[in-house]
Structures are given as C-alpha cells and as structure tokens.
Amino acid sequence: MVPRDAPASATSTPDGATAGAASLPNAAFRRLRGPRSQAEFAAAVRRAAREIGERVCCDARYVGRVESGAIRCPNYAYERVFRHMFPGVSLEEMGFSPREAVRGRAPSRAGRSSTPPRPPASPRTPQDVLRAAFLTGPTRPTSGVPGGAYAPTAPADLTAPADLTAATAASGAGRRVGEPEADAVEAAVRRIRLLDDRHGADGLYGRATQPLRAAYGLLDRGAGRRSVSERLHAGAGELAISVGWLAHDSGRLADARSLYSEALAIARVADDAALEAHAFANIAFLARDAGRPREAVQAAQAAQRAARGLTSPRLLSLLALREAGGWAGLGDRRACEEALRRAQRLYERGSRDADPEWMSFFGEAELAGLESQCWSALGVWPRAAVYARRAVAAQDPHFTRNIALFTAELAGDLAGCGALDEAASAGGRALDLLSGVQSSRIRAMLTDTARALRPHRRSAPVAAFLSRHEAVTRSG
C-alpha cells in the first residue's frame, strides 16, 4: 500500500516533493480537477485506482499538495492512476515536472547540449481547444480495447461544425465565461452525438477528450452570470457523459465509468436533477454491460428518483428499461417484466417539452431493442428475436450505428433460437453496416454470434458469414 504523504522535508519524498525548492502552484492539475472539491477529487482518484488494481491513500490533503506545487511529480502508483483518469494526457500536461529533474538525477553528460531549451508553446485557451478538437487528424485509441482489438481511423467527415468554429475567442484569462463559451460547449456535445449516431465510437473517442478538458477549464474560470454558469455545468456534464459513452461503446469500460462518475459529480455540485438522472442512467447501462447487474438496478432506481420532478414520462420509460436490464442480468424474470410493463405505460404517455435533448435516440426502435436485450439476457430467444426484428424495422435511417446494433442483436437472437441460416443472413447485413460504423461493442456481439455458429459450418449461409467475419476481423 502506498503510504500517506509525510510532511515535506529537505530530501526528495516518494511523491517528488522537495522542501528546499520554491513551489509554484500546479494550475494545470487544478484545471483537471474541474468543479469537484479536493475531497471529491481524491475519492475519484481512489475509485480509479481500484479500477486498475492500484492502492493509493489519496485524500484532500494530497490533492492540495499537488495543486500547491509541493508535489512536483507523483510516484509511479499515482502516475498510473492519473494516466488512467486522463487518457492521452502526459505528466507534463498535468503540470508535473520530469521525474529525473525531481529525483535530483542530472542528465548524462553525453545527453547535455549547449542549445538553450525551447520556450514553452503558447498556451491555448479552452475555446481554442473546443474549436480545434474536430479539425485534427485521427488519433489512435488511448487505452486497450478488449478482445479482437482494432484501431480504425475517424470518419472522413469529422470536421468542426460552423457554430463551434464561430465561437468567440477568449480574451484575457481573468474574463468571466459568457454565452459564446457556453454555446461552444453545447455545440461540441451535439456534434459528438451526431457523429456517434452515424459512425460509432471507436474513431471518435481519442479526439473527444480534448473539448472535455476545455470545458473543465471553462468551469474553473467561472461564469459571470448564474444562467451561464448553469448552462456551463450542464454542458460540461453532458459532454462528460457523451465522451463516456464513446469510451463505453468502444470497449473502454474503466474510462467510461470514470467519465460517468465525473458527470455525476458535476450534477451534484450544480444541483442539476436532469444531469444526475442522465449520469445514473448511463452508469446503469455500463454496469449491465460490465456484468454488475445489481449495480445496474440500483443506479437505474437512483436515476428514477432524480427524475421524478422532471415531468418527462419518456425519460422515466427509458430509466425503467435500464432497471429491467439489470433485473434480466440477475435472472429475475418477474421483476424484469414488471419494469418492462412500467416502461411501456410511461412511453405511451407520449413526448413532452420537458424531454431531455439527449433522448432524441429514444423511440419505438430503442424501446423494442432494449426489451430484446432483456429477453436475450433471460435466454428467451424467440421473444428476443421478435423485438429485435421490430427494432431494426422501426429504426430511423439517420441512426446508422443503431441499425447495425439491432441487426447484430437479431443475429445473436436467431442463433439462440436455432435459426442458423437466418442468423447468418442477419450477421452478414450487420457486417455490411460496419463498413461505415466503428463500434467495438457491435463487433464483439458479432464475434459471439460467429462463435455460436462455428459448429454449423456445413450450412452454406453460415459458412459464408463465418468467412466474411474472419476476413473483417483479420483486416481490423
């Protein structure tokens, strides 16, 4: 176990603090903390450590010492945790000094140069990052993708939307955040969701972390008016959920869990019930996919409590479906069916002005698709296939990723029914759709279907699907 930090002394501590040197505040790390208190951030550090098997005794005092500059470089355990929490961000970008400088190890004589060091690059404002986030070239995933991993490029049309490029450039660092910055954050959320609907998550995740960090920087600066502050907190929280979903759908479940937790923390700080309900809804979905059905039920129920005052039956319907998915994972058919009936009744009450913007995907197709997933988890394959067919037929063509998802679900359900040729045919259609969709989650579903069909290669349709699947897996 990593010991608690001792008071700084004249010698180097395990966490790189040196009492003999003047400490400069670590503003970069403070920005990464965002709106959370030091104690809340320390709790997030401990959770992240557990996710990767580390044990650190992080508390508010440790966070304070980092931000004050007393800890100039974390020890290796903390470094692994921080890199897990902020994928793609180097220690230097977190505001830490190079380890060899902190440890008192001078560079080797052979490595020294008379060339003066280059001045640091001019810092970019959060608005600069928001505008540029979708203009850079594709990035590779920042953490591993389990199972037949692949690293596709981002979709070719991943360019900045007009409202993002038109965002007002920040003036002096002391200026309070205003409407243009809030607009830019909200536009980034919409752009990410649009591209995910069309292309899936795998090519988007690496780049989407950039506007999220920028949004946290805006939160740190603070807004001049309460209305702007509320928009900024809601936008940053929704952005954290959107980026978390990209992590979730591309197989980075630990990253997704951390991002959803950050959104929940923002919701609690801002006393935003709608954002809290959304964060809990995604936490429930993630818990189901991660094999933690009890947590899925509890998170879905917490989401429903948060949403009670929001006058949106459609939101409550979706949250009931999240709960049903947890009960299905627990094998509790009776509780699952009760939650499904409740979801159907709430859905039939229709849409409302209070329905959240992020629920644009929730229609007849999603309702059927989520019910299909419940019956599949319960092993009731014929009923699962019925609802999967309904989901494919009802899906709006705009949601390319969801059509691929429901078609892959149908293939798996048909395989479970023993309808092998039909399963192979549906699997082939899903593979066709994957030419424009990048989702490790959907690919994993098709891999499961291929595994179920492999003993039946003598069927010509099955053999054709397996051959195509193997070719796609190799090329990926």
Concise synopsis of the structure shown:
This is C1 regulatory protein. By secondary structure, the chain is mainly α.
Give me some keywords for this one.
476 residues; 0% strand; C1 regulatory protein; TPR-like_helical_dom_sf
- Poorly predicted regions: 1-14, 17-21, 103-172
Estimated structural class: mainly alpha
Mean pLDDT, nearest integer? Answer: 79
Number of helices: 21
Could you tell me the number of beta strands? 0
Q: Beta fraction of the residues?
A: under 5%
> Biggest β-sheet, characterized?
none
Helix percent band:
55-70%
The geometry reads as: globular
Organism: Streptomyces varsoviensis
Protein name: C1 regulatory protein
InterPro entries: TPR-like_helical_dom_sf
Q: What does the model show?
A:
With 476 residues, the protein is mostly helical. It has a domain at 1-98. The protein is built from 21 helices and no strands. It has helices spanning 27-33, 38-51, 60-68, 76-85, 99-102, 126-132, 162-165, 179-199, 205-221, 226-249, 253-270, 273-289, 293-307, 313-329, 333-348, 364-377, 381-394, 400-417, 420-433, 440-453, 460-475. Helix 8 runs parallel beside helix 10 (226-249). The longest helix is centred in the middle third of the chain and has 24 residues, at 226-249. The protein is globular and about 70 Å long.
